[in-house]
Write a structure and sequence with these properties.
The protein is built from 8 helices and 6 strands; from the N terminus they run ααααββααβαββαβ. The chain is of the alpha+beta class. Helix 2 (about 45-60) runs antiparallel to helix 4 (about 80-95).
Length: about 240
Protein backbone atom coordinates (compact mmCIF):
# COMPACT_ATOMS: atom_id res chain seq x y z
CA UNK A 1 0.00 0.00 0.00
CA UNK A 2 1.43 3.41 -0.95
CA UNK A 3 2.61 5.61 1.91
CA UNK A 4 0.22 8.42 1.06
CA UNK A 5 -2.72 6.01 1.12
CA UNK A 6 -1.72 4.79 4.57
CA UNK A 7 -1.72 8.40 5.78
CA UNK A 8 -5.20 8.89 4.34
CA UNK A 9 -6.45 5.75 6.08
CA UNK A 10 -4.91 6.87 9.38
CA UNK A 11 -6.61 10.25 9.07
CA UNK A 12 -9.96 8.60 8.37
CA UNK A 13 -9.68 6.27 11.36
CA UNK A 14 -8.62 9.16 13.59
CA UNK A 15 -11.64 11.17 12.47
CA UNK A 16 -13.95 8.20 13.12
CA UNK A 17 -12.49 7.71 16.59
CA UNK A 18 -12.86 11.43 17.33
CA UNK A 19 -16.52 11.40 16.29
CA UNK A 20 -17.33 8.35 18.40
CA UNK A 21 -15.55 9.75 21.47
CA UNK A 22 -17.29 13.11 21.04
CA UNK A 23 -20.69 11.40 20.78
CA UNK A 24 -19.95 9.30 23.87
CA UNK A 25 -18.86 12.36 25.86
CA UNK A 26 -21.84 14.52 24.91
CA UNK A 27 -24.31 11.73 25.61
CA UNK A 28 -22.68 11.08 28.98
CA UNK A 29 -22.92 14.78 29.95
CA UNK A 30 -26.64 14.88 29.22
CA UNK A 31 -27.13 11.57 31.01
CA UNK A 32 -25.33 12.85 34.10
CA UNK A 33 -27.98 15.53 34.55
CA UNK A 34 -30.72 12.93 34.30
CA UNK A 35 -28.96 10.56 36.72
CA UNK A 36 -28.43 13.37 39.22
CA UNK A 37 -32.19 13.92 39.35
CA UNK A 38 -32.89 10.22 39.83
CA UNK A 39 -34.32 9.43 36.40
CA UNK A 40 -34.34 5.77 35.25
CA UNK A 41 -32.75 6.58 31.87
CA UNK A 42 -29.57 8.36 32.91
CA UNK A 43 -25.80 8.33 32.44
CA UNK A 44 -25.24 5.06 30.57
CA UNK A 45 -28.49 5.16 28.59
CA UNK A 46 -27.86 8.61 27.10
CA UNK A 47 -24.20 7.82 26.43
CA UNK A 48 -25.12 4.67 24.52
CA UNK A 49 -27.95 6.38 22.60
CA UNK A 50 -25.65 9.16 21.38
CA UNK A 51 -22.85 6.71 20.57
CA UNK A 52 -25.19 4.37 18.69
CA UNK A 53 -26.59 7.24 16.61
CA UNK A 54 -23.08 8.34 15.66
CA UNK A 55 -22.06 4.77 14.80
CA UNK A 56 -25.05 4.30 12.52
CA UNK A 57 -24.44 7.59 10.74
CA UNK A 58 -20.81 6.59 10.11
CA UNK A 59 -22.18 3.70 8.05
CA UNK A 60 -23.47 6.18 5.46
CA UNK A 61 -20.87 8.96 5.84
CA UNK A 62 -17.96 6.54 5.32
CA UNK A 63 -19.75 4.33 2.85
CA UNK A 64 -16.69 4.32 0.58
CA UNK A 65 -14.65 2.60 3.31
CA UNK A 66 -16.81 -0.52 3.41
CA UNK A 67 -18.72 -0.62 0.12
CA UNK A 68 -17.27 -0.83 -3.34
CA UNK A 69 -19.49 -0.79 -6.43
CA UNK A 70 -19.24 -3.66 -8.86
CA UNK A 71 -18.38 -3.05 -12.51
CA UNK A 72 -17.80 0.67 -11.94
CA UNK A 73 -21.52 1.29 -11.36
CA UNK A 74 -22.30 4.42 -9.40
CA UNK A 75 -24.31 3.89 -6.23
CA UNK A 76 -25.79 6.82 -4.29
CA UNK A 77 -26.32 6.50 -0.54
CA UNK A 78 -28.80 8.84 1.16
CA UNK A 79 -27.70 9.57 4.77
CA UNK A 80 -31.07 11.14 5.60
CA UNK A 81 -32.76 7.75 5.32
CA UNK A 82 -30.50 6.41 8.06
CA UNK A 83 -31.26 9.39 10.31
CA UNK A 84 -34.99 8.87 9.80
CA UNK A 85 -34.66 5.24 10.85
CA UNK A 86 -32.65 6.22 13.95
CA UNK A 87 -35.18 8.77 15.13
CA UNK A 88 -38.04 6.32 14.58
CA UNK A 89 -36.28 3.65 16.64
CA UNK A 90 -35.45 6.10 19.41
CA UNK A 91 -39.16 6.86 19.70
CA UNK A 92 -39.72 3.36 21.11
CA UNK A 93 -36.92 3.80 23.65
CA UNK A 94 -38.35 7.15 24.72
CA UNK A 95 -41.79 5.62 25.11
CA UNK A 96 -40.30 3.11 27.54
CA UNK A 97 -39.10 5.98 29.76
CA UNK A 98 -42.63 7.35 30.19
CA UNK A 99 -44.41 5.86 33.19
CA UNK A 100 -47.97 6.37 34.40
CA UNK A 101 -48.90 5.86 38.02
CA UNK A 102 -52.48 6.75 38.79
CA UNK A 103 -52.99 10.27 37.45
CA UNK A 104 -49.26 10.98 37.50
CA UNK A 105 -47.24 10.79 34.29
CA UNK A 106 -43.46 10.84 34.64
CA UNK A 107 -40.59 10.56 32.20
CA UNK A 108 -41.70 12.98 29.48
CA UNK A 109 -38.62 15.16 29.92
CA UNK A 110 -36.35 12.10 29.97
CA UNK A 111 -37.96 10.81 26.77
CA UNK A 112 -37.36 14.20 25.12
CA UNK A 113 -33.74 14.21 26.32
CA UNK A 114 -33.21 10.74 24.80
CA UNK A 115 -34.62 11.99 21.51
CA UNK A 116 -32.42 15.10 21.37
CA UNK A 117 -29.40 13.01 22.41
CA UNK A 118 -29.98 10.78 19.38
CA UNK A 119 -30.20 13.84 17.15
CA UNK A 120 -26.92 15.17 18.56
CA UNK A 121 -25.33 11.79 17.93
CA UNK A 122 -26.39 12.03 14.28
CA UNK A 123 -24.77 15.47 13.99
CA UNK A 124 -21.53 14.17 15.49
CA UNK A 125 -21.64 11.11 13.26
CA UNK A 126 -21.69 13.21 10.08
CA UNK A 127 -19.04 15.58 11.43
CA UNK A 128 -21.16 18.66 12.23
CA UNK A 129 -19.26 19.43 15.42
CA UNK A 130 -20.32 23.05 15.80
CA UNK A 131 -24.10 22.45 15.66
CA UNK A 132 -23.66 19.31 17.77
CA UNK A 133 -21.77 21.22 20.45
CA UNK A 134 -24.28 24.07 20.38
CA UNK A 135 -27.17 21.61 20.61
CA UNK A 136 -25.48 19.91 23.59
CA UNK A 137 -25.06 23.24 25.40
CA UNK A 138 -28.68 24.21 24.70
CA UNK A 139 -29.89 20.79 25.86
CA UNK A 140 -27.95 20.95 29.13
CA UNK A 141 -29.14 24.52 29.61
CA UNK A 142 -32.75 23.47 29.09
CA UNK A 143 -32.46 20.59 31.57
CA UNK A 144 -30.66 22.58 34.29
CA UNK A 145 -31.18 26.35 33.90
CA UNK A 146 -34.78 26.00 32.79
CA UNK A 147 -35.45 23.80 35.81
CA UNK A 148 -34.21 26.64 38.03
CA UNK A 149 -36.42 29.16 36.18
CA UNK A 150 -39.42 26.83 36.31
CA UNK A 151 -39.05 26.32 40.07
CA UNK A 152 -39.27 30.09 40.61
CA UNK A 153 -42.14 30.82 38.25
CA UNK A 154 -45.61 31.23 39.77
CA UNK A 155 -47.61 28.21 38.73
CA UNK A 156 -50.55 26.11 39.76
CA UNK A 157 -49.65 22.85 41.50
CA UNK A 158 -51.61 19.68 40.80
CA UNK A 159 -51.83 16.66 43.08
CA UNK A 160 -53.45 13.26 42.96
CA UNK A 161 -55.48 12.95 46.15
CA UNK A 162 -56.88 9.70 47.57
CA UNK A 163 -59.06 9.70 50.69
CA UNK A 164 -60.36 6.65 52.55
CA UNK A 165 -62.94 7.47 55.21
CA UNK A 166 -65.46 5.74 57.47
CA UNK A 167 -68.45 5.08 55.21
CA UNK A 168 -70.95 6.15 57.83
CA UNK A 169 -69.31 9.58 57.98
CA UNK A 170 -68.38 9.96 54.32
CA UNK A 171 -68.84 13.54 53.07
CA UNK A 172 -70.91 14.55 50.07
CA UNK A 173 -69.39 16.24 47.03
CA UNK A 174 -70.59 19.61 48.32
CA UNK A 175 -68.89 18.97 51.66
CA UNK A 176 -65.68 17.94 49.91
CA UNK A 177 -65.72 21.16 47.86
CA UNK A 178 -66.23 23.17 51.05
CA UNK A 179 -63.46 21.18 52.74
CA UNK A 180 -60.98 21.97 49.98
CA UNK A 181 -62.09 25.58 49.65
CA UNK A 182 -61.39 26.19 53.34
CA UNK A 183 -57.72 25.46 52.61
CA UNK A 184 -57.58 27.45 49.38
CA UNK A 185 -57.75 24.34 47.17
CA UNK A 186 -59.99 23.29 44.30
CA UNK A 187 -60.74 19.80 43.06
CA UNK A 188 -61.74 18.04 39.84
CA UNK A 189 -62.08 14.55 38.34
CA UNK A 190 -63.76 13.17 41.46
CA UNK A 191 -64.33 9.41 41.55
CA UNK A 192 -65.86 7.29 44.32
CA UNK A 193 -65.37 3.70 45.35
CA UNK A 194 -67.36 1.68 47.86
CA UNK A 195 -66.99 -1.96 48.88
CA UNK A 196 -69.83 -3.45 50.87
CA UNK A 197 -68.74 -4.93 54.16
CA UNK A 198 -65.48 -3.01 54.30
CA UNK A 199 -67.08 0.01 55.95
CA UNK A 200 -64.74 2.40 54.16
CA UNK A 201 -65.54 4.78 51.29
CA UNK A 202 -62.75 5.85 48.93
CA UNK A 203 -62.56 9.13 47.02
CA UNK A 204 -60.04 9.94 44.31
CA UNK A 205 -59.61 13.36 42.75
CA UNK A 206 -57.18 15.90 41.35
CA UNK A 207 -56.64 18.91 43.58
CA UNK A 208 -55.14 22.23 42.56
CA UNK A 209 -53.15 24.60 44.77
CA UNK A 210 -51.23 27.84 44.33
CA UNK A 211 -48.57 26.88 46.89
CA UNK A 212 -47.45 23.86 48.93
CA UNK A 213 -48.46 25.49 52.23
CA UNK A 214 -52.11 24.82 51.40
CA UNK A 215 -51.30 21.12 50.98
CA UNK A 216 -49.55 21.06 54.36
CA UNK A 217 -52.61 22.65 55.98
CA UNK A 218 -54.87 20.06 54.38
CA UNK A 219 -52.70 17.17 55.58
CA UNK A 220 -52.60 18.54 59.12
CA UNK A 221 -56.40 18.86 59.14
CA UNK A 222 -56.89 15.31 57.83
CA UNK A 223 -54.54 13.81 60.44
CA UNK A 224 -56.61 15.45 63.19
CA UNK A 225 -59.89 13.85 62.01
CA UNK A 226 -60.53 10.42 63.55
CA UNK A 227 -62.97 9.39 60.80
CA UNK A 228 -60.14 9.44 58.23
CA UNK A 229 -58.80 5.92 57.71
CA UNK A 230 -56.11 6.84 55.18
CA UNK A 231 -55.17 9.56 52.71
CA UNK A 232 -52.53 10.02 50.05
CA UNK A 233 -51.33 13.16 48.30
CA UNK A 234 -48.96 12.76 45.34
CA UNK A 235 -47.71 15.57 43.07
CA UNK A 236 -48.45 15.28 39.38
CA UNK A 237 -45.11 16.10 37.75
CA UNK A 238 -43.29 15.65 34.42
Amino acid sequence: MPQWLMHVQDAVFLEIALRLLAALGIGALIGLERSYHGRPAGFRTHALVCLASAVLMLVTVYESQWFSSQGGARVAVDPTRMSQGIMTGIGFLGAGAIMKEGLTIRGLTTAASIWITAAIGILVGIGFYMPAGLAAVLTLGTLSVFRWIESRMPALLYYEFTLRIDDARAPSETELLSWMGAHGLSMSKLSRRFKRGAGVAEFRMTIRATDEIAIHRLCADLRARDEIAEFRVAPIGD
